[in-house]
Amino acid sequence: MRLSLAGLGILIMSVVATPADLPPPDKLPSVAGLPDVLTMRDGTKITSKKDWEEKQRPELKELFQHYMYGRYPHLVEPVKVVVTGKVLFEDAKAFDGKGTLREVEVSFSEASWPKIYLLIAAPNGSAPAACFVGPNFGGNHLLTASDKVRVPTAWVPANYPGVEKGTNKATAAGRGKQADTWPLQQIVEKGYAVATFYCGDIQPDRPNVREGMRATLPVHKDGGPIDETATVMWWAWGCHRAVDFLVTDKSIDAKRLAVVGHSRLGKTALLAGAFDDRIAVVIPHQSGCGGAGPSRSKNEKAEPVKRITTVFPHWFCANFTAFGDDTTKIPFDQHALVAICAPRPVLLTNAEDDQWANPSGQFDVLTAAAPAYKLYGDTKPGADKVPEQGTLSADRLGYFIRAGKHSMTPDDWKVFMQFADKWLK
C-alpha cells in the first residue's frame, strides 16, 4: 500500500506562514498572564473564523516551532516521499475472535528515514472503525503476549520490562508486561480500533546521538539552529506518518481518528493534533509542562520550564531553554496550542496525586483556549468550573480528573472512549 505525501502539500505547507522579525527570547515583551489567544503579535484583534484560520492560527504555529518544539520537519523537501505499508502478520481471530491484530511496517521512499512499526487492533466487521492512534514508550511487544509482534531494535530506556541493562536492547522477555497501558482487547470490544508504535522507531528518547530521524538533519560543527527540530516534534511528525497509512486502511474510518499519548507522549499527542487537521479528537493524558500544562504556572507543585528543559533539553528546541528564568517572555502559552485544534474536541485528563502535571493549570488552559472555539459558533465549549473527581466533562473542551497517580490505565481508556462515544460516534 503506497501513499504519496505530495497530496498532503496543503496540510503540510499550512504551517509555513512566517511572521517577520522574530526576536531572540530576551528581546520579547513580558506578559504576566496567559496571552490573549485572539490577539496577534502586532496587536491585531481576531474577530472572525476567517481571520483566525488565515492569520492567527498560522502565526501561532510558527511561534511554537521557532520558540518551543523546533521546525516541523521536511516542510518543502522532500514533498514526494511515498509511504509504503507492508503487513508483517495478521491474526483475524484475535481477542477471542472479536478482532484482528496485525503489525504493519511503514517505510518511506527516503531510504535514510527509519521505519515505523504500527501495531493495529481492529474490531471484526464490515464497517470501518473509529481509531485511536499514538506512540507508546517501550515497544509494541509490551502491549501483547503475541510472539508475532516485533521486538524493537532501536535504543530503549533501561527501565522498561525485558530491556538488557547496559545495551538498552529490548528482548522478548518484555512481551505483554505493559498490556494495561494500551488495553487492546478492551478497546476492540467497545467497537474502536487502535494503532500504536514505539516512539523510538522515529526518535529514541536520548539527547546528543545522531540516530532515528535526528540523523537526517544536517551536521553543524557548532550546534544546530536554535529552532532545530526537537524530539517531541519528531514524535508528533511520526504520528502524522502513522495517520498517512491509517487513512488508506479500509478497516479504519479516516474521518474518525483520535490521537492519544501519556506524559511526554501526551505532549506529543497535543502537538500532533494541533498540526494535523486529519485528527478529529485530541487526548493528551497527564501531559504537564510542555504539553497541556501552562508554562506560566500558578501551581508550586507543578514541573517548571527551567527544570524540564534542564533535565530533558532534547524534547524542545534551544530557544525554549532560554525562557527557564522568565516564562513571561514566552509569546504564547499552551492554551494557544489547544486553540489551534479548534473546532475539534480536546480532552485533558489528569490524576489528583499527579500535581507535577499541573491539573488545575490545565483547566486554566482550556478556559483560555475557549475564545478560539467560540469563533466556530460554540458559545460554551468548556465547563465553568473543574468537574468533581471521577466525573467527565465531555464538552468540546473536555476535562477529567481521577484519584491516583501518574499512569495510563484501563480505567483511563474507559474515559477516553466515553469522550469518543460523544464526538466520534
Automatic annotation (TrEMBL):
It holds the Pfam family GCE_fung. Residues 1-19 form the signal peptide. The keyword Signal applies. It comes from the Bacteria. Gene3D superfamilies: alpha/beta hydrolase (3.40.50.1820). Keywords: Hydrolase, Serine esterase, Signal. Residues 228-377 form the 4-O-methyl-glucuronoyl methylesterase-like domain. The keyword Transcription does not apply. This is Acetylxylan esterase. It comes from Gemmata palustris.
